[in-house]
């Protein structure tokens, strides 16, 4: 995930737990502290208190073992978000300690920021196995905020917290471990863009534990909760007279919460964990009184979230959103639920209200959500504290269940739980009996619901989601629950502007009139024009005539959707640019201005006369917020000029044994390549020598070396279809580059001292002014391959630039180094290419005509 780079006005302290020293001042990356100020083990300069505006930057890729008390407000704790101090994130490990269970602890502080940290192993059994007789859990918290305000936790990664493992004898009641805990008072806290996985109890815990404590104005935004998590976000009160409201859970992903499914549970029998993506719970039965929960001004808001499972497993307890013995205003809207798998109680489960004589009555709004699954979507159940003592509204939802064995979309378990509103919902079911809901009076079709006074405006139809072809299983999240243009959900919902005003994509819903049913308003796409460059085609090459130029015809068309006028006003142009030696003299820029107003197709045509080089024709058209563009890059070339060179060398005195191989190889060092790069070509290359009185000629593959401005690494490959060595290096590389090579097997012993071995070849380039230094060598190998594609030839001398991080010469056959022997120009050992010939220095010709 992306992470902003933080800047602060105070002092930066650098901490390197592995190599720092508390005797350093810590103010530079080259003199880091070992301990963070606030760590009980900090001494020397690390024991100096931090001040507001200070930042602590932990070295990336280093594991910090310790527990940090945030003793000052206004401090930023950063895990190398800039990427300039170490590599990757800084990691914090609690090592499953039972004595110090909190990674960062802050009490009564404000203005703290935690950014780009990775945190693991706080709480839990660690390597100690469960016995099945535990009477308490091993608690642990990565970040523990007690009575804090104005805190931001962003772009962090929380994992392996507490007892998350599904293992033998595990007791779900004592599976602890929390990523972020907001305890007692908490205000103006933002938790954004973090990842949570493998966490024993809860990713985020928000709990005013002491009486009269207030947790409010807390935002949980765009986080990713997945895999082996009991509860993603846990809201609860821990005493009487607490305030817990103004909580916004917005734009998060909750997915793949299925690992504790009943059929998969390995712990104590009948004890599989109940799993909730979001859970709200007052804390005890009978409920503690005097609570201030969601209000009209400060509701609990659950919106724009995506709940899904990319799997198919047996029943998972409990629900995606679980309101247990709860009350006050809760808004659940604009969420998407796909394959949530909570067969026990469904996607949204409201279990019990609360004692309305001491706590606020339920005021729940479950609206404009889009569902696609096979299980219950909304379940209402209560006996001790009837939900009907408050109000539950189920409005504007799409319940899509295409299979014949689907569960009921709405399940009202008893007369105590009947909703005050169940209307304007759209149902689609594959059940042959067409039963949509289970009510206290029985299972109900749409007509029966209407006879009971429900769904008087509801629909039963296919909502026409954009795409549900991925089904429910491994690709559930790929489904698209936006609406098609013909969807019956369009303009069929109730206007709920008094509750909220936008859909899950941020599209403003109508201020008057009907809304769409479901999480997304339908937005009619306005077609932009399509620009097509008919010619010159991208990648086309034109050969210049003897006059030095090529005639290049262009043809451009711009088309709109039929009946959609596209009125341009002078801002629509085509321009031609040149690079790599090209010239656009004589071409008026821009080529044309504006297509004018048109509603079908308009065209522009003409001809350029161009010198050799590379050209890009770019076309743009705009009309207010709509725009379109197209471009084509092509080349003009001239017949190449060439130079043929030869180098003669002699073999050393070592005899080359019958059956051994000679690896002839050469390198070139090219000077003068600019930022635009260059191409070097070797063709018609031969190696000639005599075995006794018998002449031998070896014909080498052609070679193309591309000094590529976009390349970041060097490669050499053999293309058999073209019989060509293809080498790519960065344009700014200076040094030896593999040019060409060929193996030759000795059919009889070759005496040492052979002389007059000649390598010849023809050189060209596409850039003026290049200088080359060329040399060759030959090494002997006891085993080798004549298949050039398997040799793994090192492309450059450089030890970092290619896949071969060694000091071998360019041209070394990395796949056969262990077989090197003495002979030819090599002495064996590390002489993988052999000793080089003399160097031939020459100017590389270009194939552009002389000016």
Description of the structure:
- With 851 residues, the protein is mostly beta strands.
- Helices cover 1% and strands 41% of the residues.
- It has one helix and 60 strands.
- It has a 37-stranded mixed β-sheet that branches. Strands 48, 50, 51, 52, 53, 54 and 56 form a seven-stranded mixed β-sheet that branches. Strands 49, 55, 57, 58, 59 and 60 form a six-stranded antiparallel β-sheet that branches.
- The longest helix is centred in the middle third of the chain and has 6 residues, at 446-451.
- The protein is globular, with a radius of gyration of 36 Å.
- Residues 1-8 and 567-571 have low confidence and may be disordered.
Q: How would you state the average pLDDT, rounded?
A: 90
Low-confidence stretches: 1-8, 567-571
Quantity of strands, as a count? 60
What Rg is obtained from the alpha carbons, in whole angstroms?
36 Å
Helices, by number, come to 1
Strand count, sense and barrel status of the largest sheet are:
37 strands, mixed
Helix content: under 10%
State the distance separating the first and last CA atoms: 53 Å
Estimate the global geometry from the Cα principal axes: globular
Strand coverage percent: 35-45%
How would you classify the helix and strand content by structural class? Answer: mainly beta
Summarize the structure.
The protein has 851 residues and is mainly beta. The chain is built from one helix and 60 strands. The longest helix has 6 residues, at 446-451.
How is the topology of this model organized?
Elements: E1 12-15, E2 55-58, E3 63-65, E4 68-70, E5 76-78, E6 90-93, E7 102-107, E8 113-115, E9 117-120, E10 141-154, E11 157-161, E12 178-192, E13 195-207, E14 214-221, E15 224-226, E16 229-236, E17 243-244, E18 247-250, E19 253-255, E20 275-281, E21 300-303, E22 306-308, E23 318-324, E24 328-333, E25 336-338, E26 348-351, E27 362-367, E28 370-372, E29 378-381, E30 391-395, E31 398-401, E32 410-412, E33 421-423, E34 426-429, E35 437-439, E36 442-444, H1 446-451, E37 459-460, E38 465-467, E39 480-483, E40 530-535, E41 541-543, E42 550-559, E43 573-579, E44 592-593, E45 601-610, E46 613-623, E47 626-637, E48 643-649, E49 661-671, E50 678-691, E51 694-699, E52 702-708, E53 715-719, E54 724-730, E55 737-745, E56 757-765, E57 771-781, E58 820-823, E59 826-827, E60 840-843
Parallel strand pairs: 1-2, 2-5, 3-6, 4-7, 5-8, 6-9, 7-10, 8-10, 9-11, 10-12, 11-13, 12-13, 12-14, 13-15, 13-16, 14-17, 14-18, 15-19, 16-20, 18-21, 19-22, 20-23, 21-24, 22-25, 23-26, 24-27, 25-28, 26-29, 27-30, 28-31, 29-32, 30-33, 31-34, 32-35, 34-37, 41-47, 52-54
Antiparallel strand pairs: 35-36, 38-39, 40-42, 42-45, 43-44, 43-46, 46-47, 48-56, 49-55, 49-57, 50-51, 50-52, 50-56, 53-54, 57-58, 57-60, 58-59
């Amino acid at each position: 995930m992306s992470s902003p780079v933080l800047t602060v006005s105070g002092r930066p302290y650098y901490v390197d737990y592995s190599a720092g020293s508390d005797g350093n001042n810590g103010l530079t990356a080259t003199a880091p502290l070992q301990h963070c100020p606030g760590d009980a083990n900090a001494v020397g300069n690390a024991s100096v208190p931090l001040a507001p505006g200070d930042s602590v930057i932990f070295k990336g890729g280093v594991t910090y073992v310790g527990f940090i008390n945030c003793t000052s407000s206004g401090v930023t704790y950063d895990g190398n978000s800039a990427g300039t101090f170490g590599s990757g994130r800084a990691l914090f490990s609690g090592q499953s300690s039972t004595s110090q269970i909190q990674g960062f602890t802050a009490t009564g502080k404000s203005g703290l920021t935690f950014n780009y940290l990775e945190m693991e192993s706080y709480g839990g059994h660690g390597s100690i196995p469960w016995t099945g007789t535990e009477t308490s859990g091993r608690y642990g918290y990565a970040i523990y905020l007690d009575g804090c305000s104005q805190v931001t936790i962003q772009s962090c990664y929380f994992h392996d917290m507490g007892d998350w493992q599904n293992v033998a004898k595990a007791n779900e009641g004592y599976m602890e471990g929390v990523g972020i805990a907001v305890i007692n008072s908490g205000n103006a806290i933002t938790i954004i863009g973090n990842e949570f996985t493998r966490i024993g109890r809860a990713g985020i815990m928000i709990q005013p534990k002491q009486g009269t404590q207030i947790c409010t104005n807390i935002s949980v935004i765009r986080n990713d909760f997945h895999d082996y998590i009991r509860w993603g976000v846990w809201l609860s009160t821990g005493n009487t007279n607490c305030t817990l409201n103004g909580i916004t859970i917005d734009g998060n992903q909750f997915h793949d919460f299925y690992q504790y499914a009943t059929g998969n549970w390995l712990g104590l029998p009948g004890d599989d964990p109940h799993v909730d993506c979001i859970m709200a719970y007052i804390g005890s039965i009978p409920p503690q009184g005097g609570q201030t929960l969601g209000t009209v001004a400060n509701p609990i808001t659950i919106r724009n979230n995506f709940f899904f499972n990319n799997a198919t497993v047996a029943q998972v307890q409990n629900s995606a959103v679980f309101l247990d013995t709860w009350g006050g205003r809760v808004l659940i809207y604009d969420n998407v639920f796909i394959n949530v798998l909570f067969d026990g109680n469904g996607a949204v489960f409201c279990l019990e209200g609360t004692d309305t004589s001491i706590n606020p009555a339920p005021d729940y709004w479950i609206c404009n959500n889009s569902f696609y699954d096979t299980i219950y979507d909304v379940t209402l159940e209560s006996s001790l504290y009837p939900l009907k003592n408050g109000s539950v509204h189920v409005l504007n939802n799409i319940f899509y269940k295409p299979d014949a064995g689907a569960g009921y979309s709405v399940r009202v378990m008893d007369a105590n739980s009947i909703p005050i509103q169940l209307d304007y919902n759209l149902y689609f079911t594959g059940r042959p009996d067409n039963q949509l809901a289970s009510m206290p009076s029985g299972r109900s079709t749409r007509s029966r619901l209407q006879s009971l006074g429900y769904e008087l405006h509801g629909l039963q139809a296919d909502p026409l989601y954009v795409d549900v072809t991925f089904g429910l299983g491994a690709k559930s999240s790929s489904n698209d629950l936006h609406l098609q243009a013909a969807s019956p959900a369009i303009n069929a919902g109730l206007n709920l502007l008094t509750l909220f005003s936008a859909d899950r994509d941020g599209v403003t819903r109508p201020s008057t009139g009907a809304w769409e049913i479901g999480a997304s308003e339908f937005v009619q796409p306005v077609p932009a024009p399509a620009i097509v460059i008919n010619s010159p085609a991208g990648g086309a090459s034109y050969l210049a005539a003897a006059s030095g130029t090529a005639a290049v015809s262009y043809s451009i068309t711009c088309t709109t959707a039929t009946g959609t006028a596209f009125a341009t006003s002078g801002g629509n142009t085509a321009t031609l640019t040149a690079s790599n030696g090209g010239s656009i003299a004589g071409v008026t820029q821009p080529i044309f201005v504006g297509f004018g107003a048109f509603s079908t197709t308009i065209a522009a045509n003409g001809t350029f006369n161009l010198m050799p080089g590379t050209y890009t024709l770019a076309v743009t058209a705009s009309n207010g917020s709509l725009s379109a563009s197209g471009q084509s890059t092509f080349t003009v070339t001239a017949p190449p000029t060439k130079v043929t060179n030869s180098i003669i060398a002699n073999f050393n005195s070592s005899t080359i044994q019958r059956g051994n191989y000679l690896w002839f190889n050469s390198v070139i060092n090219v000077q003068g390549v600019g930022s635009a790069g260059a191409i070097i070509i070797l063709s018609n290359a031969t190696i000639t020598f005599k075995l006794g009185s018998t002449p031998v000629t070896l014909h080498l593959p052609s070679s193309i070396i591309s000094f590529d401005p976009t390349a970041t690494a060097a490669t050499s490959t053999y293309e058999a279809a073209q019989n060509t060595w293809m080498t790519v290096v960065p344009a700014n590389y200076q040094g030896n580059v593999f040019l060409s090579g060929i193996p030759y097997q000795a059919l009889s012993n070759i005496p040492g001292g052979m002389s007059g071995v000649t390598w010849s070849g023809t050189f060209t380039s596409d850039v003026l002014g290049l200088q080359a230094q060329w040399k060759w060598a030959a090494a002997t190998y006891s085993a080798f391959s004549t298949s050039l594609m398997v040799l793994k030839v090192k492309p450059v001398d450089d030890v970092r630039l290619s896949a071969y991080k060694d000091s071998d010469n360019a041209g070394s056959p990395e796949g056969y180094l262990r077989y090197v022997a003495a002979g030819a120009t090599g002495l064996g050992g590390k002489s993988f290419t052999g000793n080089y010939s003399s160097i031939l220095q020459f100017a590389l010709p270009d194939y552009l005509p002389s000016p």
